[in-house]
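In practice, a research group might receive sequence data for several interacting partners and want a quick structural hypothesis before committing to experiments. The following worked case mirrors that situation: the sequences arrive first, and a predicted assembly follows.
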Amino acid sequence: MSIQSRRERERAEREKLIITAARELAEAEGWEAVTTRRLAERVEYSQPVLYSHFKGKDAIMAAVAVEGCADLAVELRAARTAAPDARRAIAGVGAAYVAFADRHPALYDVMFNQAVPLPFATPQAPPALQAAFGELAEAVRPHAGDDDLGALTETFWAALHGLVTLMRGGRLPREHHELRLGLLLARFTG
Amino acid sequence: MSIQSRRERERAEREKLIITAARELAEAEGWEAVTTRRLAERVEYSQPVLYSHFKGKDAIMAAVAVEGCADLAVELRAARTAAPDARRAIAGVGAAYVAFADRHPALYDVMFNQAVPLPFATPQAPPALQAAFGELAEAVRPHAGDDDLGALTETFWAALHGLVTLMRGGRLPREHHELRLGLLLARFTG
DNA sequence: CACAAACGCTAGCGCTGCTAGAGTTCCAAG
DNA sequence: CTTGGAACTCTAGCAGCGCTAGCGTTTGTG
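A structural hypothesis for the assembly, expressed as tokens:
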């Protein structure tokens, strides 16, 4: 029993090692630099070992995405609970969301841009993702009025996501960013 | 003179052929199916011919993106001018934008999602892109009040973009789509 | 007709994600 | 203490990718 459990523990540790290495590589050089060869070299195992843990590169990216969701949820919660009132709560959460995307572009990309094999808009979605969405919803709630909270939160999220991705893709000028964010918040706080 | 001009014309026709083939292939099977080999086969030339017209695959995608911008501008203009009042104008333009993205996912992707070597948020941006943005701005203008029209248009655009991309990535449930769009419009028409 | 320039081709480089099959290590039963 | 077998990791390789060097043909000109 003990031997088997030790093996399982070592396997889990190695899996965690792969995920961390993938994340670090991606955050340092972007996902196009994360190849199975480089990743294998980094964890000091051969390529096929990766495939004994994950079905493919996509699955590794999905695992990193889940990690990112947990981190995002923590930061959103901190921003929300630190705010003294509802108005500054939604503003703080919005700013925290944008700051997260700005600090972790590769992580954000795999979470919300790239196609990864993860269930999203279903009850089977990763708890970390649901937690992050829940933080957004709590920040939006006081400003929802009679509107459906879920749909309104989704809309607010989409707006933040659009701002973030268009700006990073060079489609929006960076200099208007704060102004745009302010306009968005004004429209969502009545 | 005539011989040279004929050659130039034929070159231009072939370039147009490449762009059209790339667009058709992408719209039919997605950009991951657009390889230089398949594209070359489709236009019935060898691979290196592509590189005598375009610097690389990215440049071909950029050319397709510019075409897409022109198409989008036309559709947005039609939606805006067909509306009887300002409220229905912005609603119509928003719906037209979303419909375009829905009908041409691959085209939309290369226009606003993927990294392509195109100047965007500058005066050097393709006229077609500026035209499309201009249509959005005209639809937003009556609802801008004292807010900066440019920044507000950018914000509205970002919100639409977020709705579109999150939904296609499976991050938002499709069934709430109309509801979300309605909530967004309500927030932008005061 | 001879020549030179323009042009498109074949072949190949270094890379990608992924996998078959060989070889090794390790634990358990005799 | 030995031995058989399962678990595991490795090397090597496949098909495909974007891209390019360099050869051979075609084409218009003096």
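Before designing any experiment, note the following. Residues 2-29 of chain A form the longest helix (28 residues). Chain A has a mean pLDDT of 96.
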